[in-house]
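Methods — Computational structure assignment.
A single polypeptide chain was analysed. Its primary sequence is given first, followed by the predicted tertiary structure written as structure tokens.
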Amino acid sequence: MTAIDDALSRIDGWPVDNVSAVVVAADGSVVGSRGDLDRVYRLASVTKPLTAYAALVAVEEGVFDLDDPAGPAGSTVRHLLAHTSGLDFSDDTVRAEPGTRRIYSNRGFEVLAQTLEERAEIPFATYIHEAVFAPLGMTSTRLNGSAGAGAESTAADLARFAAELQRPALLAPQTVSLATTTAFPGLYGVLPGYGVQRPNDWGLGFELRDGKSPHWTSTANSPATFGHFGQSGTFLWVDPQAQAACVVLADRDFGPWAAEAWPPLSDAVLAALRG
């Protein structure tokens, strides 16, 4: 057993029925895993980075531009990706002027997908499959509902996505760099499950760790860490400083158990990577 495999063995004691985990190095190789990597889980909001990636492919293909109007008046594709369109979490209520607050919004990602669908003239579920899932070999991944929270996947498939995030082939490296750099810096907002963050930094579809506290990653994760977690008990982070990514999928909804269990797991993984 490698040190990383040993670190991942911590998931064996979690209060869940099923859990799968994988660590992916910057070169795309799997350097540790635990559990059934082919088990399908609901991703919840880990759907958002996948949707964002499809939207960025669409930008590079000329389907639309980041600064094209989309969503409420004054909002753009960029605002929707960065949770700054002003849209409510779940409906079309506008709660702020675009670019003035970080309002985490499932509805914003649904509007983003609808905008792409209208411009590309194909269903968004088809677009994301053809633009992201199929070329990466994510054969078990499906978008069955909301573009903000409706995908299902496996740890094996998300390991392929984590490899792409570290060594992009579907997007230009500078596009991934833009997506993982703060968009609309300095905005306050609520990180679901963790309260108000000042600032609540976000990229384009990816949450940025920066100096947030409390947080679902570890204090040992570098500020450059980016990724997402989902209310279904899932997370994916990429730490450029550690030159690795970690994917964990479980079948118990996020709650105090996850807030307690996730950071120590990341601690252990990062320590194993350093060692």
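Note: Residues 256-274 form the longest helix (19 residues).
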